[in-house]
Amino acid sequence: MVVDTSGLHSLMIRFCWCTNALSPDMQLFKMGLFPVSFTSPKTAFTFAVLDDFLLDNLECGTSAMNYYSKLRRITSSVFPHLVPVSAVDDRYRELMRVGRQWRQLKQLKWHGFGHKKQQPKAGELALFCPACLQPGVNVNLAEKNAADPAWLYSRSLVMDGNFKAEHMFPVNPTDEVALTNGLGFMVSDAQYKMHLTEAKDVVNWSDCNNHRAVN
Q: Measuring CA to CA, which residue among 185, 201, 205 is closest to residue 125?
């Protein structure tokens, strides 16, 4: 099955089995198709549909389920419910997994790791903010003038609470695979667990009677 922006298509694909032929997954990549499996590919997403999914998710907040429902309706606008949705033919889970892999490949490309085998180090996939004060990069503290206002060389760190994090606990933590473990803004899982063993959790109770989100 080939999943494209034009819908879901059941097509017959014949791979080249010549002596010097590439592996089936690499042949699909050469044709602009992202295989769901690298060992025995039977489903592939076009690069166009993956780019469209990431753009919809970024700008419109479209979830993978809603985007896949849209593809079903594009496939059959009259009877979208008849588009394969069984446990065998449904490609919703594959879309979520391939979407994450495609996003990681985009990040590697944007940060200069697309055409070399060098592995990124910790924090090298984080976006650099040119507006923030970076001593030695965009500000020279040695040239600091006493007449300059204090806020000109001050940095503000803001922490906000994510009250939806309780709903993000994975059902099977052992099945979770970190694609950018410590390569972006967040530290690696090992460093975070080390911090939890050393840090003490201090609970600050709020004086507000109706502010249950804090208490």
A: 185
Write out pLDDT tens, residues 142-200.
Answer: 888 888 887 877 777 777 766 666 666 777 877 778 888 889 888 888 898 899 888 88
The DSSP call for residue 45 is E
Residue with tokens 């008849």: 82
| Strand boundaries in 21-154, DSSP class E | 33-35, 44-46
Which stretches in the chain have pLDDT values below 50?
85-88, 215
- Supply the pLDDT for residue 20: 93
One-letter amino acid of 49: V
What backbone phi and psi angles, to 5 degrees, belong to 206? -85, 150
d(CA 189, CA 198): 15
Tokens 């975070």 appear where?
A: 192
- What distance in Å separates the CA atoms of residue 165 and residue 188, rounded to the nearest whole number? 18
- Beta carbons of 13 and 55 less than 8 angstroms apart: no
Vertex 120 angle, CA 119 and 125, to 5°:
150
Instruction: Pick the closest to residue 124 from 133, 106, 112, 137 (CA basis).
Output: 112
Give the integer Cα–Cα distance in Å for 205 and 92.
Answer: 43
